[in-house]
Amino acid sequence: MRRTRLGLVTLLSAVVLALAADPVAAQASATSGLINELNGKLLYVAIPITVITEAILIYTVIRFRRSDDAKPTKENRRLEITWTVATAAVLLFVGVASYGVLANPNVTYMPSMDQGPGQDDVVVEAEAYQWGWNMRYPEEGNISAPSAEGGPQIVIPKDTDVYFEITSTDVIHGFAVPELGLKQDAMPGATNTIKTVAYEEGTYQGYCTEYCGVAHSQMYFTVKVVSQEEYQQFLEEQQSTPTPTATPSGNSTATATATPSGTSTTTGTSTATPSGTSTATPTSAPTATGTATATPSN
Ligand SMILES: [Cu+2]
């Protein structure tokens, strides 16, 4: 019994030491930092448990391999209390550690958590459609993210709160940037917000992670993290050279010049969105039937 207790104390000390000496590597974003740190903590607990369980198992198999008349363990209150308390301690640790991460706005964002995007924060609207993304900056004159190799490129400044407002015009898509720890469903008719702070400059690959049809695998985008100065420069460039806004998402902005025919009809492109989220027809611009030929830009 003394030896068991000594073993348990050694194990617990090792876990506490491992947690105290947790080396936090440089993280790409606040979100991935929190997730990786939790993953590491759980691993520090899981490894000793695995080692000790396997050790007891192997020891028992070898030690009692020739015993003909095996006897069951008699009631041992001390042993029962030990394993109950040990299990409770492990579960409590896992629960508390996970809650600390899950309740963080950089992992699970809810509008009730803070006042929302502030003056210096960045808001990016990510609108998925079959099959691509419309990335816009609603607080910066609704400019679009430029296209780069691998789809639209969202440019964000580092060390700044960034809010991604994610939605879809047709079916369910998934917004995911694994290296930044970002993942959220894009639902038609709803907006899901996620928040992060990027720490490392660089370009990160984004994907659609919900199988959404034949060209699902082409729904790429990138997130480029730059310095604050470069970001301001990017905004000025984008605002001074307006990019063509013809998007295949149902937002037909090209129909305003059509001759008013009296009969205001929805444009052909809006029928592609059966979800009721069609924002296609500005009320002030009656559009003539047949003139709306929204050409997909890619
Ligand atoms: Cu998709």
UniProtKB/TrEMBL annotation:
Describe the location of the Cytochrome oxidase subunit II transmembrane region profile domain by residue ranges: 12-109
Q: Does the keyword Electron transport apply?
A: yes
Query: What are the protein's UniProt keywords?
Result: Copper, Electron transport, Membrane, Metal-binding, Respiratory chain, Translocase, Transmembrane, Transmembrane helix, Transport
Xref: Pfam families: COX2, COX2_TM
Q: Which GO MF terms are attached to this record? A: copper ion binding; cytochrome-c oxidase activity; oxidoreductase activity
GO BP of this protein: ATP synthesis coupled electron transport
Q: Which GO terms describe its cellular component?
A: membrane
Q: Where on the tree of life does the source sit, at the highest rank?
A: Archaea
Which compartments does it reside in? Membrane
Primary residence: membrane
- Chain segments carrying region Disordered: 234-298
> What is the membrane topology noted in the UniProt record heading this document?
Multi-pass membrane protein
EC numbers listed for it are: 7.1.1.9
Transmembrane parts of this sequence:
42-62, 83-102
Enzyme class per UniProt: translocase
Q: Where is the Cytochrome oxidase subunit II copper A binding domain?
A: 119-237
Matching entries from CDD domains are given as:
CuRO_HCO_II_like_3 (cd13914)
Q: Which InterPro entries does its entry note?
A: CcO_II, CcO_II-like_C, Copper_CuA, Cupredoxin, Cyt_c_oxidase_su2, Cyt_c_oxidase_su2_TM_dom, Cyt_c_oxidase_su2_TM_sf
Family, as annotated? Belongs to the cytochrome c oxidase subunit 2 family.
Q: What is this protein called?
A: cytochrome-c oxidase
Q: Where does this protein come from, organism-wise?
A: Salinigranum rubrum
Report which gene this protein is encoded by.
coxB
